[in-house]
């Protein structure tokens, strides 16, 4: 994947994996069928977004329905300049996220214990974020509407999907589909699809057109 990790980052990923294993007895965080699943299906899958994050220092990133912290926390480990907000309604998962952040010694991370729909209905955090993402926590059409609400003009919505759920809904008028990347995760070769949308200042025509880039 072209990612080089320092010793301190590897140490944090190891501690993250240990914390996930400890909390799995209390709350359903991730599906694990083999020892490689956490590394490949969760850590590496999350890091597949790295090449598509803005290069400027300190982008403000919102992870919707953060669950066990994916993809937000792995991205924060490798890009500590990110200001990360994790929005999650489950009390048990919120407790896990706060404990994981403490154990990993991460700063610049906020856990928001709210329901996404309630935040949107209240008009909160609108137009604030440079990047919004979610890892298959919502149907694509819902996630696009969320992106319109939370993103600043010019901000990016990164939609992560498996190939079977890579739907092609009508794109809201304030979003422009930029490209879709098909990839396979290392080791296991699991297929993944990342679709990148950009929020535009002026509404355009809703479209199903797509530019596909296979990597």
Can you give a write-up of this model?
The chain has an eight-stranded mixed sheet with strand order 3-2-1-4-5-7-6-8, with helices on both faces. The protein is α/β, with parallel strands linked by helices and 215 residues long. It has one domain: Vaccinia Virus protein VP39 (Rossmann fold), CATH 3.40.50.150. The C terminus is likely disordered. It contains six helices and eight strands; from the N terminus they run ααβαβαβαβαββββ. 34% of the residues are buried. Helix 1 packs antiparallel against helix 4. The chain is globular. Helix 6 links the parallel strand 4 and strand 5.
Descriptors for this entry?
8-stranded mixed sheet; 215 residues; Rossmann fold; alpha/beta; globular; disordered C terminus
Q: Regarding CATH, which class?
A: Alpha Beta
Low-confidence stretches: 204-215
Looking at the structure, what is the overall shape?
globular
Count of folded domains: 1
- How much of the sequence lies in strands comes to 25-35%
Decide which structural class fits the backbone: alpha/beta
CATH architecture: 3-Layer(aba) Sandwich
Along the chain, the helix and strand elements come as HHEHEHEHEHEEEE
Radius of gyration equals: 17 Å
Quick one: CATH superfamily? Vaccinia Virus protein VP39
Give, in spatial order, the strands making up the sheet with the most strands: 3-2-1-4-5-7-6-8
Q: How many alpha or pi helices?
A: 6
């Amino acid at each position: 994947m072209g990612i080089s990790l320092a010793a301190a980052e590897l140490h944090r990923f190891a501690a993250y994996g240990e914390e996930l294993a400890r909390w799995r007895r209390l709350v359903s965080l991730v599906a694990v069928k083999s020892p490689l699943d956490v590394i490949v299906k969760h850590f590496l899958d999350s890091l597949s977004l790295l090449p598509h994050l803005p290069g400027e220092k300190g982008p403000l990133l919102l992870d919707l329905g953060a669950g066990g912290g994916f993809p937000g926390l792995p991205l924060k480990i490798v890009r500590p300049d990110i200001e990360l907000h994790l929005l999650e309604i489950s009390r048990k998962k919120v407790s896990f996220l706060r404990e994981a952040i403490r154990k990993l010694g991460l700063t610049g991370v906020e856990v928001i214990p709210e329901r996404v729909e309630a935040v949107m209905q209240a008009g909160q955090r609108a137009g604030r974020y440079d990047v919004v993402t979610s890892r298959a926590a919502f149907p694509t059409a819902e996630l696009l509407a969320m992106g319109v609400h939370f993103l600043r003009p010019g901000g990016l919505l990164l939609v992560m999907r498996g190939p079977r759920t890579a739907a092609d809904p009508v794109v809201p008028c304030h979003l422009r589909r930029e490209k879709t990347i098909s990839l396979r995760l290392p080791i296991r070769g699991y297929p993944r699809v990342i679709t990148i949308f950009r929020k535009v200042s002026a509404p355009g025509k809703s479209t199903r057109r797509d530019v596909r880039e296979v990597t």
